[in-house]
């Protein structure tokens, strides 16, 4: 049997600890599948004396991941530190420059520096694998990068943040408010103490940026993504959506349009009878639409120590199975130098259906005026629902819900501005885009 | 750029023709992704003078696929002939023996001769890829063989035959009989003139046998699969299932049990609110349950010329990206010699819930007697429904539907034998197993 593949693990958090434990427990079956043993020979973490429930004996210890990358007796650096820059980036750059293979679960690092790192890996003829960086345990990177080779992709979209999907699912199933569900998610460890990054869509955006590059052969452009989180989604939206046959999910969507590539992350209404609408809780789902294969949907765990470690292990196994220097899979599916510049489609030209919920003063002619404004913007309506008038001290108001047929973002924005300027609305209209498979 | 990878295509049916067309149309993007051009240099088919809408100029022609495998100027043989033996098997064996890589979409060949072919491929240090053989365009082979490396799998199941799923979906949505839907499927080309192989479950069994070996590290054992088709599923079953919150799908299921590995193909009731229950029409779905990653579900096109060609192309690309002789991925995930003998779990010891529908004479005490027989077999009932008595000339009868909690196949068979021997039933009771995610 060939020599062992020597692994250095930088970062011993939940994922790192799972990985060390699993590789130790499964050494024989791994060696059998990979044709050679897989051995963790060096590790690095901030604090040495902490009980992680794993046996680190026989492994070189490094306080500094860069030192591990520089001088560790390893073939592969597994980066599980996180962060777009700092020690994560430094250790990966050093490892690649040294001609080591790199496996990382770091979406921020790839979203910001992926193309440069891919170029470096190709120069050195080593692998840069990052299955765990997008949708955790779902092998979507492998699907796009390998299985779909030769396909022209038209759209990639998915539920890529478990925290948001958990919150939206709880809100719908139990009629709880966003705040209550967020607290619950934090209690269960599904959400960080500071949940901003998850609930405002940044985490989804990082993952989407990586997928967009793989799917469309363009450079990664994480800062050009239209971003809208779920924090202003109310129970009223969820109930109205359900009445109309939709469920609300936070989707990341990338699609090729005539004016360029659209990248957007926002709450989205999906038809209730679609498979993706049935994806609940912390589960993730990614849909890939391509011209030869057709539509492919993958559903699975998007986070968690073991699920993420499993994806990292798959990446390590791919390296173990390929002879040193033999592998020519470019990290981003095509040689990094051949990636086209990212051409951004303007959000105003986005086409699709829209759900619009507005609170208006209860006065004769309001609906007629609103309908006229829609018509002025060439928007055709699929349905219009008026909800019961409220009494109370203030002037009586009513809620009007509009669902449009396919139109453009610009038309919708224009119509709403006009309606607001007409003075009928009592608060900012809620607009949710509709995505159909 | 490296030399072109030379492909020989044996079989120019729908899939073969799609493959030739796609490789021609996408030569540049393929060369860019793979780091070398992919070129079809030789083809073989039964009839030469037939318009397939593709350009075969510049390709060596062989009437005999074995001759192509023997003497074609190729690096890879793509076998798209079909059949467990005959020219398909002969050409693949010759190609592997000659040290050529082989890509095949032939499930029957692998289900019957997969282990021997894998051994031969490993001896010669070449790749034997067969993504298209299971669930068409869904990259499930890659997921089990590569992404899940190191995972211990507990269950694999799925909808792997589009014909059956189309028929069951039509029956449910349009209230048509099995026969009407089969005719429709044949008219649309979803079903063969002789549909036996699809509707009796043999096609699903072939695919399941391959997945079982990959998932559990055992030898392929296609003839040990418990088999039940969909031809005796009636509208009455589908309606009753739906009343009880289930949908009926033809599933192939392989799972590890205490007494061995269970492989079964049969109509199955799945809870209505599960993702797999939403998979309609000719679409396929495969669920993989493993201990580290958790549950993974993949949904996509299970058949069709282009979707299948896309999977074949992915296999070819994997070969193009790896240096000759460099690849050490064993065809079945582990060295073929290390595969354990298949240890069959007896069907009678299968555990799960059951749906039982029986027509009985409308006589006082019948239900009590039936309930007693169930109790005698230690079967606890989840629900019992009695359907309206029929009038008519014959003696009045009624339909009784039982849904059991988890029990064993043996208990259910025993109870039903006793009920029949009690002389209450007017025709053979319908038994459908329930599968829960």
Question: What this model shows, in words?
Answer:
The structure is a homodimer of 437-residue chains. The first copy, chain A, is an alpha/beta fold and 437 residues long. Chain A folds into three domains: 5-137 and 305-336, Rossmann fold (3-Layer(aba) Sandwich); 141-301, Dihydrodipicolinate Reductase, domain 2; 354-434, Alpha-Beta Plaits (2-Layer Sandwich). Chain A is built from 14 helices and 17 strands. Chain A has helices spanning 14-25, 27-34, 65-71, 86-97, 107-124, 140-147, 162-174, 178-187, 196-199, 202-216, 235-243, 305-321, 366-376, 409-421; strands spanning 5-10, 38-44, 60-62, 76-79, 101-104, 128-129, 153-159, 226-227, 246-257, 260-271, 283-290, 294-301, 351-361, 381-390, 397-404, 407-408, 430-434. In chain A, strands 7, 8, 9, 10, 11, 12, 13, 14, 15, 16 and 17 form an eleven-stranded mixed sheet that branches. In chain A, helix 4 (86-97) packs parallel to helix 5 (107-124). Chain A is elongated. The mean pLDDT of chain A is 94. The interface between A and B is large, with 61 and 61 residues. Chains A, B: This is Homoserine dehydrogenase. Chains A, B: Pfam families: ACT, Homoserine_dh, NAD_binding_3. Chains A, B: L-homoserine binds at residue 192. Chains A, B: Pathway: Amino-acid biosynthesis; L-methionine biosynthesis via de novo pathway; L-homoserine from L-aspartate: step 3/3; Amino-acid biosynthesis; L-threonine biosynthesis; L-threonine from L-aspartate: step 3/5. Chains A, B: Keywords: Amino-acid biosynthesis, Methionine biosynthesis, NADP, Oxidoreductase, Threonine biosynthesis.
């Amino acid at each position: 049997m060939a020599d062992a593949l020597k692994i250095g693990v930088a970062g011993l958090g939940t994922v790192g600890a799972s990985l060390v434990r699993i590789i130790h427990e499964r050494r024989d079956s791994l060696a059998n599948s990979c044709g050679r043993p897989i051995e963790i020979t060096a590790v690095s973490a901030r604090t040495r004396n902490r009980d992680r429930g794993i046996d680190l004996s026989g492994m070189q210890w490094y306080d500094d991941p860069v030192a591990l990358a520089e001088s560790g007796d390893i073939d592969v650096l597994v980066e599980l530190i996180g962060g777009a820059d700092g020690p994560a980036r430094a250790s990966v750059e050093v490892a690649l420059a040294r001609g080591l293979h790199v496996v990382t679960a770091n979406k921020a690092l790839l979203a910001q520096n992926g193309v440069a790192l891919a170029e470096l890996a190709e120069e050195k003829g080593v692998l840069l694998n990052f299955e765990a960086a997008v949708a955790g345990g779902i092998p979507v990177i492998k699907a796009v990068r390998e299985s779909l080779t030769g396909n022209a992709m038209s759209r990639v979209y998915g539920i890529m943040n478990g925290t948001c999907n958990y919150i939206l699912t709880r809100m719908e199933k139990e009629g709880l408010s966003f705040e209550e569900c967020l607290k619950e998610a934090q209690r269960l460890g599904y959400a960080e103490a500071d949940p901003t990054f998850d609930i405002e869509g940044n985490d989804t955006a990082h993952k989407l940026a990586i997928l967009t590059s793989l799917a469309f052969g363009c450079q990664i452009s994480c800062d050009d993504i239209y971003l809208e989180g779920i924090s202003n989604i109310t129970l009223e939206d969820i109930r109205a959506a359900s009445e109309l046959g939709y469920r609300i999910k936070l989707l990341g969507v990338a699609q090729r349009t005539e004016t360029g590539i659209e990248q957007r992350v926002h709450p989205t209404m999906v038809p209730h009878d679609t498979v993706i609408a049935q994806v609940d809780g912390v589960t993730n789902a990614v849909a890939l639409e391509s011209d030869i294969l057709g539509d492919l949907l993958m559903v699975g765990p998007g986070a968690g120590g073991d699920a993420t470690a499993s994806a990292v292990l798959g990446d390590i196994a791919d390296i173990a199975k390929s002879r040193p220097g033999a592998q020519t899979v470019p990290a981003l599916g095509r040689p990094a130098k051949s990636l086209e510049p990212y051409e951004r489609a303007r959000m105003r030209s986005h086409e699709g259906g829209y759900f619009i919920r507005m609170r208006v003063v209860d006065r004769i002619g309001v609906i007629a005026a609103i309908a006229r404004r829609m018509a002025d913007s060439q928007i055709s309506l699929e349905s219009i629902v008026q909800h019961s008038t409220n009494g109370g001290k203030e002037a009586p108001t009513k809620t009007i819900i509009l669902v449009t047929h396919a139109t453009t973002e610009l038309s919708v924005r224009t119509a709403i501005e006009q309606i607001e300027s007409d003075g009928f609305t009592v608060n900012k209209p809620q607009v949710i885009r509709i995505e159909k498979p």
